[in-house]
Amino acid sequence: xxxxxxxxxxxxxxxxxxxxxxxxxxxxxxxxxxxxxxxxxxxxxxxxxxxxxxxxxxxxxxxxxxxxxxxxxxxxxxxxxxxxxxxxxxxxxxxxxxxxxxxxxxxxxxxxxxxxxxxxxxxxxxxxxxxxxxxxxxxxxxxxxxxxxxxxxxxxxxxxxxxxxxxxxxxxxxxxxxxxxxxxxxxxxxxxxxxxxxxxxxxxxxxxxxxxxxxxxxxxxxxxxxxxxxxxxxxxxxxxx
Length: 241
Known about the structure:
The chain is of the alpha/beta class. The protein has 10 helices and 9 strands. A 7-stranded mixed beta sheet has the order 1-3-2-4-5-8-9, sandwiched between helices. It has a two-stranded antiparallel sheet with strand order 6-7. Helix 1 crosses helix 10 (226-237) and helix 2 crosses helix 3 (82-89). The radius of gyration is 16 Å and the shape is globular.
């Protein structure tokens, strides 16, 4: 399969930083549109990475290509599996800070698989179907309530039926150099999440030393609470940070 990295770019901006948005598994960069539009209207240069989600290294490379295109220091934002991507890609000097949204803030030697298979009694896990040809999908019937219970059901039905397969090469690859060890880090915990248990989000945020906010949201927080997400990202972009 041949893949190429691409980016969706906001209008010319007058803010001192650029914002790079990194999506997670099973979806594409279109989920960022509302957040992109809010931030762009506020004067930020906003770029959204289109990750292939086949291998972690491929997604890191795609993200670094977009970072290189940014005209200013970068606030690097990752949702869900996108957190693993920014953890590895964010060590570039151009990256000013990291923002995790219901995301995997992994440590060295850890993979998404390691977190995803760890026991969390009393909390839901992502309802994944068995691997097929090296890729994962979410159970189509359970996707709307697990991924985005507070989003328009018509939209989540389409999202379920248009899922992007998630490669085991992305799921099982371990992080080598966590960028959060060197960069200011922010983490939004989604309290109504049925994909990544909130207890795991809190644990990852704590060990990363992140500034944390919690929100009563499903996993798809950028769809259900775009203004709050945009505000959180701008808090990481503030000149005093």
